[in-house]
Specification:
Layout: H1 2-12, H2 29-47, H3 49-163, H4 166-179
């Protein structure tokens, strides 16, 4: 294979002439391609391809601007919603704190009221018990007095019955009548 490459290199070292059309030096294969490109560019310019391409690009730019404007408005709307929900969340937190404070205050008031009511109830029960004890003492004293009076009356009857006779009774009755 190396021999083949060496032979090709030796053969390429020879000088050969470049092909020309009509004997004109600029009509070589590269020149013809250049002329063809110039013709294509001129035809494209004549047909208005740059305007068409520019219009397509302008339309695409306008579409991208529209999408960017829409994205910006959506972002602003999302920001507004986020701010609104943050405000509502903060307000809800404040309301929760206020409700919690009110509930704690109400619970403390209920406990305090229950303590006051319990103290008042205990005092009423003490007073009622004291009244019942006093009434029982009075009833016992009254019963004792009645019993003592009955015993004294019975003893007086018995004593008077033994010491006084009919004449003495008559004399006492007459004195009592005279005193009236």
């Amino acid at each position: 294979m190396l021999e083949f490459l060496a032979a090709g290199a030796a053969h390429g070292a020879e000088h050969h002439e470049e092909a020309m059309a009509f004997g004109l030096p600029f009509l070589t294969p590269g020149g013809i391609v250049a002329l063809a490109m110039i013709c294509v560019i001129l035809i494209a310019l004549k047909a208005g391809v740059p305007r068409i391409v520019a219009k397509i690009l302008d339309d695409r730019i306008a579409g991208i601007r529209t999408q960017l404007a829409e994205a910006a408005s959506l972002r602003a709307e999302a920001q507004k919603l986020r701010d609104e929900y943050a405000r509502k969340s903060a307000q809800a937190d404040k309301e929760i704190a206020a409700i919690r404070a009110a509930a704690e205050k109400q619970a403390a008031e209920i406990v305090e009221q229950a303590k006051t009511d319990a103290t008042a109830l205990i005092e009423r029960h003490k007073a009622l018990a004291a009244d019942k004890i006093a009434a029982a003492e009075r009833a016992a004293v009254d019963d004792l007095r009645a019993t003592a009076a009955d015993a004294a009356a019975a003893a007086a009857r018995e004593l008077l019955g033994k010491e006084l006779d009919e004449a003495a009774d008559k004399k006492l009755v007459d004195q009592a009548i005279a005193g009236i």
